[in-house]
Design a protein that fits this description.
Radius of gyration: 21 Å
Mean pLDDT: 85
CATH architecture: Up-down Bundle
CATH class: Mainly Alpha
Strand content: under 5%
Largest sheet: 2 strands, antiparallel
Strand order of the largest sheet: 1-2
Oligomer: single chain
Structural class: mainly alpha
């Protein structure tokens, strides 16, 4: 098997540049879905159920994209066609989702429209996102994979930063952040529109500057024989034969992604109550936050700022991670810092002091973006790289599905009778989950496919 050659920095950059645009879309979804559905009329105790759909679509779509793209060879490449189609659908849906409350639907119909739009948005984002990880696995040698995924992590966080800040920026320049009851503010709508434009431009750039390996060259660099090319891929058999690294990293992923699911779901409500003193109202006999109030919508804008601080913290910490020689220690330390950040939000009521909490959370995010894929792809051969990465996405999606399914139960258990939903306690639970993830890191066994170990 031939060793893949080193790539220049700019080739590595171009390989992942489209991720910047895709991540803007993902950031807008992550920071605004709870806000959108709460504005449409969702009960806080049921809020986590709206988050089941995105990872559910991911766990279905990404393995299929991996399997199909492993067997796709076109003049445009093997991964890029899926990237482009996913991005195109994302752009269309990003123009629909924030208008869920603007078509004169009742509350139920508006939420159904929003859910269907969310389903298509997350499906297309997943379809566009996965090829970037696969192309690094396909085209980058073991020595440079750490750098390649670090570049991808940087672009991911830069895109997140832009997406998170859009609603706050648009509010600051005078676009309305408050709308009629049941309608999404214009500042959120314009965030999605501009994000859609940037997404398609970034993806076009990557498709024009990246040339994937032709079949013969790919086979030479990945040790694939002519006979093995025609073998059918059975996902169950691949899971059975998966290296231990797949499962041990997957355990860490379970705790990490469950924690971040609770961050995305409950940060808006938590800081609206504790930091922005949002007024409460009785709704169907339950005490809830007034989602139509200026305080709640201001908290929604501030969530974007806090998530942007998280992205900045992640970028800075991503620079530090390669300096720590012991990769597992770096992984575990990053998750512990994130846990401290989550737990500290329970005790902080000043909106600017929360910057410290979310910068620490960014340390965990940096490790989650770069280290699992570096460790996993080093243990895989090239033959079923895309399928394995698609299956590995299950370790991202499954914990989110479990966390979202149990979110309402956890909120109820943590909420004293007659009081407002304890969304701030859910962030403490997220911290506990990251601590469990940090402890699990030390059972990971790293292997190397290229060295035959």
């Amino acid at each position: 098997m031939k060793t893949k050659p080193d790539l220049s920095f700019w080739k590595l950059w171009n390989l992942s540049f489209g991720f910047f645009g895709v991540q803007i879309a993902y950031a807008l979804q992550s920071a605004n879905i709870s806000r959108i559905f709460a504005t449409l009329g969702a009960d806080p105790h049921d809020l986590s159920f709206f988050w089941i759909l995105p990872p559910l679509m991911g766990i279905i779509v990404q393995p299929l994209v991996g399997k199909w793209s492993d067997n796709t060879w076109t003049r445009f490449g093997r991964r890029i066609p899926y990237l482009f189609i996913g991005a195109l659908v994302s752009v269309l849906v990003m123009c629909m989702l924030p208008n869920a409350g603007s078509f004169g639907f009742g509350v139920g119909a508006a939420m159904i429209f929003g859910l269907v739009s969310l389903m298509f948005l997350d499906t297309s984002i997943n379809m566009a996102m996965q090829p970037f990880k696969m192309m690094v696995g396909d085209m980058v040698n073991e020595k440079q994979k750490g750098l390649a995924y670090s570049i991808q992590s940087f672009l991911c966080n830069a895109g997140s930063l832009v997406g998170y800040l859009f609603p706050y920026i648009f509010t600051a320049i005078g676009i309305a952040s408050v709308a009629a009851t049941g309608e999404i503010p214009d500042s959120v709508k314009w965030s999605f529109y501009i994000g859609a434009i940037i997404l398609i431009l970034c993806v076009i750039y990557t498709t024009m500057t990246v040339k994937e390996m032709p079949p013969k060259q790919y086979a030479e660099y990945h040790g694939i024989s002519e006979d093995s090319k025609d073998e059918k891929t059975n996902m169950i058999q691949l899971l059975i034969k998966a290296p231990k690294t797949f499962w041990t990293v997957g355990l860490v992923q379970f705790f990490c992604w469950a924690a971040f699911m609770y961050m995305w779901t409950y940060t808006n409500g938590a800081i609206a109550e504790s930091t922005f003193n949002t007024p409460t109202i009785m709704k169907d006999g339950v005490l809830v936050l007034d989602v139509a109030s200026k305080q709640y919508q201001a908290a929604g804008d501030w969530v974007g700022v806090l998530f942007a601080v998280q992205a900045i913290g992640s970028v800075l910490w991503a620079i530090v991670i390669p300096m720590i020689k012991n990769r597992k220690f770096a992984y575990s330390l990053s998750l512990i810092l994130g846990a401290i950040g989550f737990i500290s939000t329970y005790f902080i009521t000043d909106q600017y002091m929360l910057f410290v909490s979310y910068a620490l959370i960014g340390c965990a995010w940096a490790a989650m973006l770069a280290l699992p894929f570096t460790i996993l792809t080093n243990s895989l051969s090239g033959k079923n790289m895309g399928t394995y990465l698609g299956l590995f996405n299950g370790t991202i999606c499954l914990p989110q599905i479990v966390a979202a399914s149990l979110g309402g139960v956890c909120v109820s258990l943590l909420t004293p009778n007659g009081e407002i939903a304890a969304q701030d306690s859910m962030l403490v639970l997220a911290g506990v989950l990251l601590i469990l993830g940090a402890l699990s890191v030390f059972i990971i066994k790293e292997t190397s496919a290229e060295k035959g170990k």
